[in-house]
Amino acid sequence: MAQLPDAAPTNRSLARRMTALMALGFIALLLVGYAAVRVMQRNELHTGLVEHTYQVERAVLNVRRLVEESEAARRGTMLIPGRDVTRANFFRARAQVPVALARIDALTRDNPAQRRYLQGLRLQLGSLLARQDRTLALLGQGDQRGAIVAYGDDAEVRDVVTIRNVLDRMALVERRLMTHRDAELRASQRAFYTLIVLGGVVLAVVAVISTLTILSYTRDLARSDEALRQLNAGLEDMVSARTEDLTRANEEIQRFAYIVSHDLRSPLVNVMGFTAELETAAASLRALVARVDAEAPAVASEEARLAAIEDLPEAIGFIRTSTQKMDRLINAILQLSRQGRRALTPEKIDVAALIGQIGGTLSHRLAETETELTVDGVLPGVVSDRLALDQIFSNLMENAVKYLRPGVPGRITVTGRRGRDRVFYTIRDNGRGIDPRDHQRVFDLFRRSGAQDRPGEGIGLATVRALVFRLGGSIDVASELGQGAAFTVSLPLVLAKQELNP
């Protein structure tokens, strides 16, 4: 096999130089990245301050709006005392004033100037609220004229004007802060863009140096290309030989399983036949014992009666049960063997229609268990073997119906998605679930999980996995006890030709 050429001394020198330059470029990038992070942190700080200024300004405007609304509603109440809507608007606006003041108080804890304005604002609002209470009291006494006279008092007008002036000063403070903080934010943004440009320059320098260094290795790569091609050719031959060996071994295993299961049936049939003869003989023996009991009770012993009436039928029943189970297991092995030998026939399959057909077949069981079968979204089509897909989905959906939680209406949902050259189908249920420790064991032949309170031999999921593997796919399960199970089948979008006759 061809050997790869050794690197020349010049190339080793270039490699060391490239390593040094790359290290310098990496250090420069780290420094630029650190500076960019610091600038971003400062930018975030300034952005937060600008947003805080907007919040304070909105809170100040909200207080002014509430004061104006309450005063407008009070005027309307005095002019039309019996109008409930106006009176309700007054009390609503007035009730919101303390909340709005608390909002300003929370936002301006770090601003001494605003705290002073806020203290004066509270005093003026307290005076205004007291005058509003006096006006309402006069209205309550039926003295509309007195209320209007009190409202027109100069002191009352001064309170409202003073409140407006204080709110204007608070808004002016925030606008000045806004100007200053906006300038700082813009400066941070400029610094950030400058660092971005600097980082781009560093990257460009490193890229140029790396490109020049890589070009120096082109001659060595060209010399080693032919050797690599020869190595690949040898590896391909080795892979082909191993694949043929595995194919022959797989076919031999399938033939062995078929022969063994077929040969086991012959003695099993004999056992089942002789069991039937034993049942006939046991029936005659029981009749004889019954006749002896009737005509000469003293002749038959108690042990003989028990053997003929109880022990012998019970033993025959155990033999029949065991032979029936053995027959089912042999049939399962034969079925798996036949699946491995059957030639696959790829065709374009409408998976949604296939699921609908399977649902129609299971409609009686779905209705009995109050189970709802739904297809969520669009199921992508696939080119594969129809019979194999039908068996895969049928087994998974039958298991979902079989292992429902008692007293809980069943839900089976089928979803699908496409990813490049593969498709994924998920059958999800809300049944009793599978212990995570058994997620892989449930796919083994004759292995089952959880309470064995349902009929079955542990064959269905083993058949499903074998069929999925034949189609070039894989199957996984995600489940927790009491939370249902989700089986995901991954298949190639188009069944490859080499998978037709494994």
Q: How much beta, percentage-wise?
A: 5-15%
Q: What summary fits the major beta sheet? A: 5 strands, mixed
> What structural class is derived from the secondary structure elements?
alpha+beta
The run of helices and strands is HHHHHHHEHHEEHEEHEE
Q: Average pLDDT across residues?
A: 76
H/I helix tally: 11
Poorly predicted runs of 5 or more residues: 1-5, 498-502
The figure for the number of domains is 3
Shape: flat
Gyration radius (Cα, Å) is 44 Å
Work out the helicity level: over 70%
Side-by-side strand order of the widest sheet? 2-4-5-7-6
Number of extended strands? 7
| N/C terminus separation | 32 Å
Organism: Sphingomonas endophytica
Pfam families: CHASE3, HATPase_c, HisKA
Transmembrane segments: 20-37, 191-215
EC number: 2.7.13.3
Characteristic key phrases:
502 residues; alpha+beta; Helix Hairpins; Heat Shock Protein 90; 3 domains; 5-stranded mixed sheet; two-stranded antiparallel sheet; 11 helices; 71% helix; disordered N terminus; disordered C terminus; HATPase_dom; EC 2.7.13.3
Description:
71% of the residues lie in helices and 9% in strands. With 502 residues, it is of the alpha+beta class. The chain folds into 3 domains: 9-216; 245-341, Orthogonal Bundle (Helix Hairpins), CATH 1.10.287; 346-499, Histidine kinase-like ATPase, C-terminal domain (Heat Shock Protein 90). Helix 3 (112-140) runs antiparallel to helix 5.
